Each structure stands twice: as C-alpha cells, then as structure tokens.
Amino acid sequence: MIEQLEAIKNKTLTAVADASDVAALAELEIAALGRKSEFMSALKGLGALPPEERKAVGERVNAIKRELETAFAARRADLQTSAFAALAETEWLDVTMPGTKPPEGHIHLVNQAIRDITEIFSRIGFYRVRAPEVDWDWYAFESLNMPSDHPARDEWETFFMDAPENDKQGKMVLTPHTSNGQVREMERRKPPIRMIGIGKCYRRQIDVSHVPMFHQFEGLMIDKNVSVTHLRGVLDYFAQNYFGPDRKTRLRPFHFRFTEPSFEVDITCGVCHGTGKLGDGAKPAVSESAEGHESAPSGSRGVERCRLCKDGWVELGGAGMVHPNVLKAGGLDPEEWGGFAFGWGVERTMMMRTGLRIPDIREIYSGDFRFLKQF
Ligand code: PHE
Q1: Are both 366 and 266 inside the same structural domain?
Q2: Among candidates 220, 221, 203, 187, which has minimal Cα distance to 330?
Q3: How far, in Å, is the centroid of ligand 1 from the Cα of 122?
Q4: Ligand 1 atom closest to the CA of 216, numbered from 1
C-alpha cells in the first residue's frame, strides 16, 4: 500500500512541477487529493490492515499527504509570483508620459453672454428672474396696455398655442418678448423691484439679423421717485461695462404701449465700428465724417456695406418709463410707485460686443462646430 501511495506521490509531484498556471494547479490538486482521487481510494485499504501495522502505515500516509500539500503550496506561490511578473511586463504604465486630452467643450456663446449680463446687473442690485416662455396673452400683451385688437400687437409676430383659452387671461402664446415678466414680477413681490429677467422669445421672423427663437433681457426697476435719469444711468452703466468705454449709445424717441415716454436704444456697430461699411475702406465714423467723405456705395472695390447695421448704428431694443396702466395691472398705485423698463436682445447685444465679428445672426444657432469652437 505504501508503495502504491509513493507511486501516486511521485506521479503527482511531476504533474505539480509541470502545472503551467494557478488554475491548472488548482484542478490538479482536486484530482490528486480530492475525495474521488486515486490517493483517497488507496487509503480505503488502511482499515483492512492489522491494528499493529495501522499506526506506522497511517503516519507514512500522513507524511506523504503533507509532502504533497507542501508541494502544491510552493508551486502555487511560484506560479503567482511569475504571473505578477508577466503582468508587470505587459501592463506597465509610464506615469510621466503626457496624457491624451479628452475633447473639451465650453458653454455656448449665448449662455456666456447671459452670464456676463447677469453679472453686470447684479453688481447694481438687479436680481435674475425667469418668466414662463409659454404664457397667457394677459401677461404678454393685455396687462402691458395692449388690448386684444390693438394694431401695435402686430409688431410682435406672435406664435399662438393650439391650446384652450382661459376666460380671464386669454390665449396662450410663445412669449414674443420678456416683458411678460413685468406684471408677473409685480405680482410676485412688493417694490422696490430691480429685476433682470432673461429668457427665450419667439417670433415669426428669420433673416440676417433675426431668428425665430432668441433671447431677451428685461430690466425692471420700480421704486419711489424713479426718473428717466435713472434709466439713462443704468443703460450707460451697462453699455460701459459690457461693450467698453469706446462704444457710444443713443436714445431715440419711440412708442411702446407699455412705457411712456418710450425710447429705442442704439449702440455703435461692433462689426463695422460705426462706419456702416466693411472692408479696407472701413474706418471709424468720426474720422470719416471729419474728412467729409461720402459713404462709398456698396459694391465698390474693397468696401462692402455692413450687412448688420444701418449707417453704423445698431438697434439694441426698447426702453421707457413704466406706463401707469401696467403698474395698475400689477396691482400697484401709479401715484405711489413708478419705474423704468428696458428689453434688449441677448444675441444682438452680444454681436455688438467689441471684437466679435458675427456677420449673420443665424450662425449662432447653426450648430456648426467650426463656428462654435471659436468662442
Ligand atoms: N418688449 C419690447 C420689445 O420686445 C422691449 C421693451 C421692453 C420696451 C421694456 C420697453 C420696455 O421690443
């Protein structure tokens, strides 16, 4: 029996030495020492031995078993060490190597502009609000002193929602301006109010300087004794901080139903630097007029009429003193409270910024990566 076990041992030791990896060794161990192994079935003969022999043979058997177990353990340790060594050979990493840069995006230029505008107004105490983009006719028009059949409404080429009307508030519209936020803000909090509402607006329009979805920022200040001087001050403050001190603004008398008096705010064009022309001949308007030159007709050599502006000025948007009827619609007594409001397009404002030369507003929403990557 001992010879039989010794033979099994030698055979097993050779196999252990030949095992190529840890998994093969584990299989071999089960086959050699497991319950169904040749070794274990040989042990069954132990019970048949006379008691005086059993002890000595039993000790030999245990010794053989231990020897085998030790051999398995040693071989396992060896195999693991070489497996790690092989891993280190193939999976090393040079941490000093320069990395691969993942493609990195940035926020869209319109959102950048919104952040800048918000930040500039926040410095003078204006807080950012958002009004609904789909709102009732009441907030978009009626409460702004524009009764339902008033022709002034035509200027806001409005998209109407195919949705049930509300008895008091009328139809639902895609807000054609952010002025719907005015009465909403008056309802939301008691004056003093200094809001800067920024949101999306929608109008049926598309050309070089219009897109059907665009953004506006709406300023509303309501307090006691607010005058046009305050409005001017805030507009100038913004123009100075957003465009830089070299840009000029002007107010033109205008008409809005919801402000009285009303103005249109213009700024010198940032594409043609106020000249109205592009190309070699485009020089600042000041020197041009000082020299008494006539504007070159469009199409003349090297000079092209600026496609974005009219004669060097670009209209940014409207402004004015809040109409008493609007204050009343917002539940405020016009004898006690007064204020100003202004509403400008974000894209338009951004395109007028010094250094930005975007000749067509539609580029902004073209989704063309080559365009967007520049900003
Ligand atoms: N809502 C006006 C527009 O879209 C702009 C405006 C806002 C005018 C506030 C006056 C006061 O044209």
Answers
A1: yes
A2: 187
A3: 20
A4: 4
Domain limits for position 34: 2-90
- For ligand 1, the distance from its centroid to the CA atom of residue 319, given in whole angstroms, is 6
Task: Calculate how far, in angstroms, residue 257's C-alpha sits from the geometric centre of ligand 1.
Answer: 9
Centroid of ligand 1 to alpha carbon of 341 (angstroms): 8
Indicate which residue's Cα is closest to atom 10 of ligand 1: 319
Residues 68 and 123 in one domain: no
Q: From the alpha carbon of 178, which atom of ligand 1 is closest?
A: 1
* pLDDT in single tens digits along all 375 residues of the chain: 788 888 888 999 999 999 989 999 999 999 888 888 888 887 787 888 888 888 888 888 888 889 999 999 999 999 999 988 988 888 888 889 898 888 888 999 999 999 999 999 999 999 999 999 999 999 999 999 999 888 888 888 999 999 999 999 999 999 999 999 999 999 999 999 999 999 999 999 999 889 999 999 999 999 999 999 999 999 989 988 999 887 778 899 999 999 999 999 988 876 777 888 886 555 544 433 333 334 444 444 567 888 767 788 888 889 999 999 999 999 999 999 999 999 999 998 898 786 677 888 899 998 888 888 888
Angle between helices 109-122 and 228-243 (to 10 degrees): 130
**pTM of the model as a whole:** 0.68
Ligand 1 center from residue 14 Cα (angstroms):
94
347 closest CA partner among 170, 173, 200: 200
Cα–Cα dist 172/163, whole Å = 7
CATH number at residue 198: 3.30.930.10
Euclidean distance between the first and final Cα of the chain, in Å?
88
**Nearest protein Cα to ligand 1, atom 4:** 177
Establish if 346 belongs to a structural domain. yes
Residue nearest to atom 8 of ligand 1 (CA): 318
CA distance 241 to 217: 16
Picking from 28, 57, 90, the residue at the C-terminal end of a domain is: 90
356 shares a domain with 216: yes
Tokens 């003969």 belong to 45
CB-based pocket (< 6 A), ligand 1: 177, 179, 256, 259, 317-320, 341-343
Phi, psi of 4 (to 5 degrees): -60, -45
Same domain as 239, residue 329: yes
